[in-house]
Amino acid sequence: MLEVRDLTVHHGQLQALDGISLRVFPGEVYAIIGANGAGKSTLLRTIAGLHHPSS
Questions:
Q1: What's the pTM?
Q2: Which of 3, 9, 4 is nearest to 38 (CA)?
């Protein structure tokens, strides 16, 4: 299981993610949808360790 709790990411003064929490269980399929600039790529890059969370 992958669990993310209260994830916040800043890029300088810009708050890219604010308080994101989720659980992904083995065998389940998820889609992350949203408008351009909503933070989808930032979320995945932070989970992958390419960005560092603020909290």
A1: 0.87
A2: 9
